[in-house]
């Protein structure tokens, strides 16, 4: 799984977060998406890689601005994993 941390400018409330989350769910096969207007970021988890240009276009179409994108491999840590 791949974890994307996306810095998003312009989100002001919970409805803004929901707007970004819904747009990402419709555009990509998302495992998990969570936005925070206070942290000014969105966390996106997918099985397959997603291009940064695509992320910028989808979020930009909602009226918000992507200022940075970081990606890293993500492995869920279970109770018995080290």
Which secondary structure elements does this structure contain, and how are they paired or packed?
Elements: E1 2-9, H1 14-27, E2 30-36, E3 41-46, H2 52-61, E4 65-73
Antiparallel strand pairs: 1-3, 1-4, 2-3
Write a brief structural summary.
The protein has 82 residues and is α+β, with helices and mostly antiparallel strands.
What does this 3D model show about the protein?
This protein has a 4-stranded antiparallel sheet with strand order 2-3-1-4. 29% of the residues lie in helices and 37% in strands. A hairpin with a 4-residue loop joins strand 2 and strand 3 (41-46). It has one domain (2-73): Alpha-Beta Plaits (2-Layer Sandwich), CATH 3.30.70.100. The chain is of the alpha+beta class and 82 residues long.
Strand fraction equals 35-45%
Distinct helical segment count: 2
The assigned CATH architecture is 2-Layer Sandwich
Fill in the CATH topology: Alpha-Beta Plaits
Terminal residue distance: 17 Å
Structural class: alpha+beta
């Amino acid at each position: 799984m791949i974890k994307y941390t996306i810095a998003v400018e312009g989100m002001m409330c919970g409805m803004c977060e929901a707007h970004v989350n819904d747009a990402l769910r419709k555009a990509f096969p998302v495992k998990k998406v969570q936005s925070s207007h206070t942290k000014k970021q969105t966390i996106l988890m997918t099985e397959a890689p997603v291009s940064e240009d695509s992320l910028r276009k989808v979020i930009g179409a909602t009226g918000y601005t992507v200022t940075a994108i970081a990606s890293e491999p993500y492995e869920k840590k279970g109770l018995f994993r080290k």
